[in-house]
Amino acid sequence: MTARRRGPAWLHVSPRVWIKRVLLAGLAALGLGLAAVGIAFAVIPVPDVANGLADAQTSIVYYDDGTTEMARIAELDRESIALASIPTHLQQAVIAAEDRDFYTNQGISPTGIARSVWQAVRGSDTQGGGSTITQQYVKNYFLTQDRTLDRKLREWVIAVKIDRDLSKQQILEGYLNTIYFGRGAYGVKTAAKAYFGKEVGQLTVHESAVLASVMNAPSLFDPALGEKQKANLTNRVSYVLDGMATTGAITQADRAALTGLPTIAAKAPSRALSGPSGYIVADVRKELQTKLKVTDDDIDRGGLRITTTISAKAQKAAEAAVLKGFPKTGNIKDVYAGLVAIRPGDGAVVALWGGADYQARQFSSATDALVQGGSTFKPFALIGALQQQISTKTQIDGSSPLKDPALGTTTSIRNAGGRSYGTIDLRRATASSVNTAFVRLNLQIGPAATRAGAIAAGIPEGTPGLGVDPTNALGTASPHVIDVANAFATIAANGRRATPYLIKSVTSNAVDISYAAQPNVVDGFAKEVAADVIDAMRGVTTTGGTAARASQVGRPVAGKTGTTDESKSVWFTGFTPQLSASVAMFKDVGGVPQPLTGIGGVDELSGGSFPLTIWIEFMRAALQGDPEVDFPQRAGIGDDKVATSAPTSTSTTTPSRTATTAPTAPVPTPDVPVVPSDPPATIEPTGRPTAPPGQPTRTTGTRPTVPPPAG
User: Fold this and answer.
1) How far is the C-alpha of 152 from the C-alpha of 136, rounded, in Å?
2) d(Cα 599, Cα 597) in Å, to the nearest integer?
3) Angle between helices 435-445 and 378-386 (to 10 degrees)
4) Among residues 319, 291, 320, 318, which one has the least CA distance to residue 306?
5) What residues act catalytically?
6) pLDDT tens sequence across 223-267
7) Which secondary structure element, helix H or strand E, spans residue 352, and what is its range?
8) Domains of the chain and any CATH numbers
9) pTM for this structure?
10) What whole-number distance in Å separates Cα of residue 548 and Cα of residue 542?
11) CB 70 within 8 A of CB 314
12) Contact call for residues 363 and 708 (beta carbons, < 8 A)
């Protein structure tokens, strides 16, 4: 009897038949593959013209309308040079770095692609040459930077065709004249100047290895970008030099003598960043890097189209106001002004003045400089008081001087001109910027409440000097101008705190990015608190207030002056419901704050002088044509707890209620009246504070060792 076979018949086919079938299938797949390759070669031509790289990939910054160009974020320099003028050792360094089989491959490298995939799997930062020099030349010269399978296929086909039609020398020359080296430099000629300040023919072997390394990924290897990039470059240069020794381009003895890095020039400030708009573009670049995580390479050559929040009308108003209102006479050297305007309830920065010319001073008075706040901090004490149900109608002692155990045995607080106000309410104390009244208030509510009020409004928690000493209500902290503008915008927005931002949207046809800003707005404090603070601050801008001239804007306004000890910094920050703007002036010599004396015919400046003048000019123009909007009615928090009458006090001492330690931060002078001849207030008798407005950057929070140049 014949045994029955189990299972389908194809399982019982002989091995010889299986081999035959596999071979036939393989041949069919190969035929299809070859047919596909043939079709690709037939339909994908070598482009007749270059891709217009310099124009197509320059990133452009626009005003908030998305069409009016503000600046080009990076200039792109390219100057072609014949291969014969490029040192042989530079050519060999590039080949050792990018494509050691350049002279033998046919435009593509399967092993190189496999190596690139392996490095990607390992998570390596550096690139190992997955694309040949020919492929990179094709991508840079003929194609775009988009990361799609279609673009990669066209790159492969065109690379093979180019390798067939051009000599290796022609390909290498084209490549060395189009590859990007960072610092805005395309091609070896401009790269030699950018990194070493010399002509390409003067480069040493060691310097050539640096350029061959940087070109792999400038954002990873330019030492000007940080210590990590410097370490990356050191390792990459070693790899390149080892490769040159392996290929015989240099001897082993020459290789052994080359260690570390040669001297590399500092990165020059971009020529695209000039004038007042240069500060905006520099801040836009920071926001791209920190918030959107866009790389330097993509910023420099990614063809980004960046729409900012900056209003062309408001920015023009800011520039005109500073140029008109800034003092023209006297000791104005090393005197700087910063201005920032923010939309309340949104956080959009609509105008920014960081300086007259970014080329002269790469340090923004608006977003980098830390300027002691002075009496601009008094509204934060009001916030703290109102949150404890203390009415702004509360009577408080404004007599001067004030001595209290909480201040220490050697410190006393005086009002401007030594004036004593007797018993006044907190609204009058705000309007007249009565120093002693606010210190007494601070002792009552606790300095921590004032600090919390500042943070709730938007002053960063890590602001230098933002402590809990009894005098923190007088502005011992040193914020950025943008911080104060945003904190007052929170008050204007009825307690809604927003995160400031400069970038409205970003798109690109060259790199994968599409971004639209979503404002980050949270509750800072109750709208009733904001209403009562606004009511008190409106008194500053009316008759009898330290900034009565602010009423010249011609619509409801509120604000606060700020003047520190010896007038080392002076402020005016004010707002309407639609716009908050802060103006600060300070003098810095060699990193040390100096008094603003003998300037513009005024012995000592105050917040009610030049800063207020600039603010008025700006707000008038920036709000021209906008509807007039009124503030909310006063809420009257704690009014039911206010005594109907109180005796006038002439005491000079108030017992400490909450604070028991002496202040550790420098104590600024409260505001002086608008009359220029009035002397500033003083804090006796220990001398004047010497720690100022500092000049650290926003990102590091430390004072630079080299002060910014004048500008």
Assistant:
1) 11
2) 5
3) 40
4) 291
5) 98, 375
6) 999 999 999 999 999 999 999 999 999 999 999 999 999 999 998
7) strand 349-353
8) 76-257 (1.10.3810.10), 316-684 (3.40.710.10)
9) 0.74
10) 5
11) no
12) yes
